[in-house]
Amino acid sequence: MRLLVLSRNASLYSTARLIRAARARGHEVDVLDPVRLQFAALPKSPGVLVLGKPLVHYDAVLPRIGASLTAFGATAVAALEEAGHAVLNGSASILLARDKVRSLQRMAKDRVGVPRTIALRSLGGLKDALALVGGCPVVVKLQNGTQGVGTMLADSEKSLVSLCETLSALGQQVILQEFVKAARGSDIRAFVVGGRVVAAMRRTAPPGEFRSNIHRGGSGESVKLSRRFTATALRAARALDLEVAGVDILDADGTPLVIEVNCSPGLEGIEQVTQVDIASAVIVHAEAYASKRRRRTKG
């Protein structure tokens, strides 16, 4: 099978692991920086080019699209889908997962538990919005934040108003989210591949910090999810139509609340903590996904 990994850098841990896993299973694998792609609307020309040359056909494409490249990356994925490549994950799913509020709305509609969340641009209804999410302390997020950057905690209404005024002046949309005290500064990252949870870890924030991201000094431990938490992770990934997903869940005294779903989840932290070969699980699913697409096309 011929695989393509869309990534800005082949030496990144997650990209390198996918390459090694694919080659270990006998596949040919290429890495392509998505910004090298060109999209053509020309007579008798393929729709996708690489620096002016037609892109060869791949059995499966694994997009590793960073948050800073979401819009262009989704365009590239859409072009590859249009050209007939089997892509895990699709462009619509990437855009939906990257929209913090729309993704939560979609999950809530599909009966996935989520924290109370409100997005606002005008500060006129700030006090009412604060009351609806449970008051202070309250989590304040930016739409484009990632790995804990752009996630803040306002302890009082006064500090919230000051923070939101600053963000509004900078042209930022403000997202207010319920602060779930019962989570006690920890969350669960469930790694979903092809409709099953292949690994899970609990992340705990360092002292004095409420963000549990490993990149921000959080610690991790491998966990076995209960049926309820497993079902929540799978339902969240399914709601956003993601084949590969990192589902972040708060444990509110036994009640799972999904705070975010990552469409390009990193492998480094969770592979090291759980000792699970997640990269190989992704490649095995890519094989099955590509085979299913071929049968569907022939049919």
What does this structure look like?
There is one protein chain. By secondary structure, the chain is an alpha+beta fold. It folds into three domains: 2-96 and 282-298, Rossmann fold (3-Layer(aba) Sandwich); 117-179, ATP-grasp fold, A domain (Dna Ligase, domain 1), CATH 3.30.1490; 182-266, D-amino Acid Aminotransferase, Chain A, domain 1, CATH 3.30.470. It has nine helices and 15 strands. The protein has helices spanning 13-24, 70-82, 91-98, 100-109, 126-132, 157-169, 227-239, 268-274, 278-298, and strands at 2-6, 28-32, 37-39, 48-50, 53-54, 60-63, 117-120, 138-146, 149-154, 174-178, 186-193, 196-204, 219-222, 244-252, 255-262. Strands 13-12-11-14-15 form a five-stranded antiparallel sheet, sandwiched between helices. A four-stranded antiparallel sheet has the order 7-10-8-9, with helices on both faces. It has a three-stranded parallel sheet with strand order 2-1-6, with helices on both faces. A hairpin with a 2-residue loop joins strand 11 (186-193) and strand 12 (196-204). The chain is globular and about 60 Å long.
